[in-house]
Amino acid sequence: MEVCTERLRRLWGRLTRVRRPTFLSYDRPIFDQVYEFLDCCSWGTGIMMGAGVFMYLPIIIKYIAGPSTVLSYIVGGAIVYTCVFSFAELSSRFPYCGGTYVYNYAIFGEFVASIMGVSLLLHHLIIAADICISLSEHIDYFIFKRSLEDFEEREFAYSDEDTSVVFASYPRFFASLLIVLVSVILTTKSKYNNFIGSCANYISFIMVLLIVFVGAFYLDFDNWFNVEGGFVPYGYSSIFRGATVILSTYLGFVELPCVSDEAINPAKDIGRAAHSSFFFVLCIYISVSTVVSLLVPYDSVKTNFAMANIFIDIGVDWMKYSVEIGSIAALFSTAMCVLQAASRLAFCMGKDGVILPCFGAIQQRNKVFPAEDKSRKLFLISSSSQKRTVKKSY
């Protein structure tokens, strides 16, 4: 009886043991610390803007909130901003690359942190797969004129009895290749992948500003007030339904602490970058949703390649090239940020022994994750891009 009691006591002690801030302050791994304040802002903006503008906005406008989507972005932003203060404080107190996982480890203990860490790791992989599927569709539409998708569907489509609500109707090999490509880029030195990600962010910023500027000359307020249902066609509750979908795009700032170990001054820069990137993305969301909802009636918005088709519908065909370049750059940047956050999370969990210890090693040459057998990460991540857990249906 005493032996069992002692074992249970030790097990409970392991499950509830917590980290101390002093331990975190002096145990930073040897990453290249190259992220300045503007780099952190770019990273935080990149992980939020791609999905929010080019993936979810057309769906929300057409099926959920209509012209009142702009109010959904404002409501969602007001709710999320209360979380920004918490994460800014936590990132200053725990300047460590694990983010939410480390915060749970330091406050609630190892058991809660391990559950949170595994859940977040699966979440990152699913989001990365979804983003890279959208990225592959935009590249195929812009460069290959949908020929790659037609080939995959024609040659590799599953039979009717093999399909389900879990798997897509055919494997997305091009999306898998894109995830492998992004993963290889992330195995280079931090200054190189930071440069590539920043370039993609700046390109997407410029193209989004071009969308707002050009669209401002074709605004038609009849698309707000003289359409079926008016400004709120789906009822006032639709504003809050749209806000619930938008919350997931705003919450990208939660992953910003994952680059704490690569920031020059994480205790100050991460918190300030969270506030700055949030307000920048909020302005982008409000501007783009306002312009898009005023260009065409909400019920005529096409959910596939929506931005390009909207400018084609209003007769500005040349803008479709700028829109697609911006969407490709934004989704590529978001994919890089999500996979980088996943790798840093896996590093912390491997270092703590929650998952395989090989994930907690650092490559000494490039000072990136991991040191051992990069193919483990490439296979793990690329395999997830061949399926969608839930299809979008609103």
Question: How would you sum up this structure in a few lines?
Answer:
The protein is an all-alpha fold and 394 residues long. Helices cover 67% and strands 0% of the residues.
Please tag this protein with its features:
single chain, 394 residues, mainly alpha, Amino acid/polyamine transporter I, 16 helices, disordered C terminus
Q: Helix amount, in percent?
A: 55-70%
Tell me the major beta sheet: none
Just give the CATH class: Mainly Alpha
* Secondary structure category: mainly alpha
Please indicate the percent range of residues in DSSP E strands (runs of 2 or more): under 5%
- First CA to last CA: what distance? 57 Å
Overall description:
- With 394 residues, this protein is an all-alpha fold.
- It has one domain: Amino acid/polyamine transporter I (Up-down Bundle).
- The protein contains 16 helices and no strands.
- Helix 4 runs antiparallel to helix 12.
- The longest helix is centred in the C-terminal third of the chain and has 34 residues.
- The radius of gyration is 22 Å and the shape is globular.
Write the layout of secondary structure elements.
Elements: H1 2-16, H2 21-25, H3 37-54, H4 57-65, H5 69-93, H6 100-107, H7 110-142, H8 147-156, H9 173-186, H10 190-215, H11 222-225, H12 237-250, H13 266-295, H14 306-313, H15 319-352, H16 375-384
